[in-house]
Design brief:
Structural class of chain A: alpha/beta
Bound molecules: adenosine-5'-triphosphate, magnesium ion
Radius of gyration of chain B: 37 Å
Oligomer: heterodimer
Number of strands of chain A: 5
Strand order of the largest sheet of chain B: 3-2-1-8-7-4
Helix content of chain A: 40-55%
CATH class of chain A: Alpha Beta
Distance between the termini of chain A: 11 Å
Largest sheet of chain B: 6 strands, antiparallel
Strand order of the largest sheet of chain A: 2-1-3-4-5
Strand content of chain A: 15-25%
Largest interface: A-B, 33 and 33 residues
Number of strands of chain B: 15
Strand content of chain B: 15-25%
Number of helices of chain A: 4
CATH architecture of chain A: 3-Layer(aba) Sandwich
Shape of chain B: elongated
Largest sheet of chain A: 5 strands, parallel
Chain lengths: 120, 414
């Protein structure tokens, strides 16, 4: 079974980039343009991992994370942020990884592989 | 009668030039109108001594340049608040037992205080080699003219004060405006950095994709390499800007004020011993739960502690007390470094205000902005032998600043 990743980002260009790149790696990719939309998708589809932008208009990534973890405790979430070299211990919010946004997606892909691999 | 002298003094008072230049013109007018050889103005300087401010014969007079407190005829005139009229023999430098070096070779002298009795700030001193007797009317006239001259001196002082206050105000205003501009600029830069970064990431990401899709050896690859390289460069610059402006954002997490303070103090351990500073650390309550961005709060405390150390370079005592006070967790940082000049205390949180040769004046404003973003506050007062800074953060059990922040749970660390 292919794993399905939900990409949540308000930036269209980035959403499409993530989609193409992650599909190339052999994953299925769903897209959501806002926090609200991401929660709807999660209700409908079966998702294996969420890639979550923090800074979004409306419901931001941190709030989405909180709701996701309330409802789907074991669903892995990777938070993306614009702050480089500022790796927070998001442990209190139970995010599974914390990624600095970059045009180089190597680190992101590596992290996804590790998390999905662990679950298998 | 020659009342027109009053009008003339007024005209001279309003004429251009420095106070000294105008006084000299008045002195010449007095000498001329009252038929004296010389007319001098002495004004009180610091410590009450009278200094020659102007002379009808120019400042290169050979006579007395200053009178000490209580010295000579000027002291008599000032003390009594009256016109002193001295007639003496051709030789000697005294009159009725009052020695006055200025009386050398003078037969008649008139000294009149400037400003009322008890509030004199100088004298006008007229000298004549010949013996002369001023008729009563002329004496009255002299008094009125001298009062006129005194007014001119006092106005000049007032104008000078006013001018100084005005230019200080202008300077403060300019500094305020520039700090506001700087803040606005910082906000703008932060927004820009964020706005530019996302599209930039797309461009870079697609360039990388394209590179992978082109067959090896295609000429386009060279261009794409260059593009990726340049995009990488811009990304780096944007990251630098965002990191620099990161000060604008705090990410609040449950933390313990005691721990933050201890960590901040630890950084300075070597400096404390190098400067002979004894540190007293007390926590009246523990733990002190707060919602804080630890890195940022450490920067705030770093700046406050660094100032304390700089005020005690030759040794002293630093006291850091943490406690809970109502809805706040409080840290008090007190030093024995002499405190803050009361006339500066209102300015120390302004950007760029510094009394240090190599200071930026940004330490406290940064600390203040970090603490404010934590919904806390910082206050300063002089206490004991030094300055005392009080930092308050909402106690996270009582006040709930980040209403959106979820309760602490034993989550997995990344
Ligand atoms: N503990 C203190 N004791 C005496 N004066 C202080 C103390 N803390 C601050 N000040 C006064 O406040 C001024 C402003 O402090 P601030 O930290 O903002 O800038 P600075 O220390 O002058 O420069 P920088 O922080 O860049 O070294 C200082 O120049 C000093 O006059
Ligand atoms: Mg975003
Ligand atoms: Mg400082």
């Amino acid at each position: 079974m292919k794993k399905r990743i939900l990409v949540v980002d308000d930036e269209e260009g980035l959403r499409l980039l993530y989609k193409e790149e992650l599909e190339d790696e052999g994953w299925d990719v769903d897209l959501a343009a806002s926090g609200e939309e991401s929660l709807e998708r999660l209700e409908k589809d079966s998702i294996d991992l969420v890639l979550l932008d923090i800074k979004m208009p409306g419901m931001d990534g941190v709030e989405v994370l909180r709701r996701v973890k309330e409802k789907w405790k074991d669903l892995p979430v990777i938070l993306c942020t614009a702050y480089p070299h500022y790796k927070h211990d998001f442990g209190t919010w139970a995010s599974d990884a914390y990624i600095t946004k970059s045009s180089d997606l190597t680190e992101l892909k590596q992290t996804i592989k590790e998390i999905l691999g662990k679950k298998r | 009668m020659e009342y027109d002298i009053i009008e003339e003094v007024n005209e001279l008072a309003a004429s251009g030039g420095t106070l000294e230049e105008r006084l000299e013109r008045v002195a010449r007018l007095f000498a001329l109108k009252f038929h004296f050889d010389e007319c001098l103005f002495f004004l009180a300087g610091e410590g009450g001594a009278l200094k020659l401010a102007a002379s009808s014969s120019g400042l290169c007079t050979t006579g007395v340049l200053s009178y000490g407190n209580g010295e000579g005829l000027p002291a008599v005139a000032i003390e009594k608040g009256v016109l002193v009229e001295a007639h003496k023999g051709p030789r000697g430098a005294e009159w009725e037992g009052v020695p006055d070096r200025g009386l050398e070779g003078v037969s008649t002298a008139l000294v009149y205080p400037l400003g009322g009795k008890g509030a004199s700030f100088g004298v006008v001193y007229l000298k004549s080699r010949e013996r002369t007797k001023l008729p009563l009317v002329k004496k009255q006239l002299l008094k009125v003219a001298a009062i006129q001259a005194a007014l001119m001196v006092r106005n000049a002082a007032l104008i000078e004060d006013h001018r100084k206050a005005h230019s200080e105000l202008l300077e403060i205003q300019a500094r305020l405006a520039s700090s506001e501009k700087l803040l606005a600029l910082g906000d703008m830069a932060a927004t820009m950095a964020h706005e530019i970064r996302n599209p930039l990431l797309s461009i870079g990401g697609y360039a990388a994709r394209l590179k992978r899709q082109l067959p090896p050896g295609s000429p386009g690859l060279v261009y794409l390499d260059k593009m990726s390289h340049e995009i990488g460069r811009i990304e780096k610059i944007m990251n630098g800007i965002i990191r620099f402006l990161k000060d604008n954002l705090v990410e609040l997490k449950p933390d313990d004020l005691n721990g933050i303070v201890d960590e901040a103090l630890n950084v300075f351990a070597d400096e404390f011993s190098a400067h002979g500073i004894a540190v007293e650390r007390r926590s009246r309550h523990a733990p002190l739960p707060v919602l804080a961005d630890r890195e940022q709060m450490k920067i705030a405390f770093d700046n406050i502690i660094a100032n304390a150390i700089q005020s005690m370079e030759k040794g002293g005592a630093l006291k850091v007390v943490t406690s809970r006070s109502g809805d706040f967790a409080v840290a008090e940082v007190s030093d024995t470094g002499g405190g803050i000049d009361p006339k500066h205390i209102g300015y120390i949180f302004n950007p760029f205000f510094t009394t240090k040769k190599h200071g930026t004046g940004l330490g406290l404003p940064i600390a203040n902005s970090i603490i404010t973003r934590h919904r806390g506050g910082i206050e300063v007062r002089n206490e004991g032998r030094g300055a005392s800074f009080t930092i308050k953060l909402p106690y996270s059990g009582a006040a709930r600043p980040g209403a959106d922040v979820p309760p602490v749970e034993a989550g997995r660390a990344v």
